[in-house]
Design a protein that fits this description.
Oligomer: single chain
Distance between the termini: 9 Å
Order of helices and strands: HHHHHHHHHH
Helix content: over 70%
Shape: elongated
Number of helices: 10
Largest sheet: none
Radius of gyration: 27 Å
């Protein structure tokens, strides 16, 4: 997991983007050497056409970043719904189901469902996750080989609710209410899987990076005439700005990753567990997740 803190130390940012910075300074140095030192003035380029090209690259890179942020924000909204629907589910179960053991089973199965969804979105194995293994019921361990563990857990929930209705312990109105909550969980899960399984077209990344690199090669040949050797750092700064816009889109494209600005799925999962287990009067709750020393919450 990446835990760099870029808020207060620019050196971390430089180390992160050192490959791009070196490239942009190198081409700037080549342009300065050819035009100023070797006096190859015919290589000078006009500034105006490159200004237009730079504006177009900025718009294109920003478009990709905006699309990536929309994915990140949608993921956050889906997990916000997960928190509220989980609280609602626990209240429904505890008030509708008269058997306290069955009520605890339904609530705790939901806790393991949330942890399993978190681990699968981060491309991990749920049964290797400490929080999932701690909360999953022995009767649900047989589901380990399921093609979709989260759906299998929801199916178990629905089967238990229907059995309650068939036995007359749950009236039709309450059955319908719980069915809507389970359907909401399935919709949230489907939304997360859609984001996870549908990356932005690879052509965006390739085109943006190719345009920025081409611009970085040409720009210093337009700057050297007016700036001299200062064209080297200026070229690096301008092109790095474009590269960072593009990089922001790359790291936001998958909101469920382990990068420092990914969604804090573990913290959200623990919050859900603490909230709904408290309704069962459990006292052995896991500690709340707080930011680490770098200000990162995962």
């Amino acid at each position: 997991m990446m835990t760099q803190n870029f808020r207060s130390n620019p050196l971390n940012l430089i180390r992160w983007q050192q490959r791009h910075i070196l490239l942009y300074m190198a081409v700037g140095a080549v342009a300065w050497l050819l035009i100023v030192v070797l006096d190859q003035r015919y290589l000078e380029l006009p500034v105006l056409p490159l200004s237009v090209i730079g504006a177009a690259i900025g718009i294109f890179a920003s478009f990709r970043s905006n699309q990536a942020y929309d994915r990140w924000w949608e993921g956050r909204k889906l997990w916000g719904r997960m928190i509220n629907s989980s609280r609602h589910w626990s209240s429904q179960v505890i008030t509708y189901v008269k058997d306290p053991e069955l009520a605890e089973e339904l609530v705790m199965r939901h806790v393991s469902y949330v942890h399993s969804l978190r681990t699968l979105l981060r491309s991990r194995k749920p049964f290797d996750d400490t929080s999932f293994s701690r909360t999953v019921r022995d009767s649900d361990r047989a589901l380990e080989g399921s093609t979709n563990l989260t759906h299998a857990l929801l199916h178990q929930q629905f089967t238990a609710v229907v059995a309650l209705a068939d036995s007359g312990e749950l009236d039709e109105r309450r059955l319908e209410s719980m069915d809507r909550t389970l359907m909401d969980f399935l919709n949230i899960q489907g939304g997360c899987e859609r984001i996870k399984g549908t990356p932005l077209p690879r052509g965006y990344s390739f085109i943006v990076e190719s345009l920025i690199n081409s611009f970085a090669v040409l720009l210093p040949f337009a700057l050297v005439h007016d700036l001299g050797a200062m064209a080297i750092p200026v070229n690096a700064l301008v092109c790095l700005s474009f590269a960072l816009i593009s990089e922001a889109g790359r790291v936001l494209e998958d909101p469920f990753n382990d990068f420092y600005n990914g969604l804090p799925l573990f913290a959200l999962s623990i919050k859900i567990e603490r909230n709904i287990r408290e309704r069962l009067a459990h006292t052995d709750l896991p500690p709340a997740v707080v930011e680490d020393s770098n200000g990162v919450l995962m």
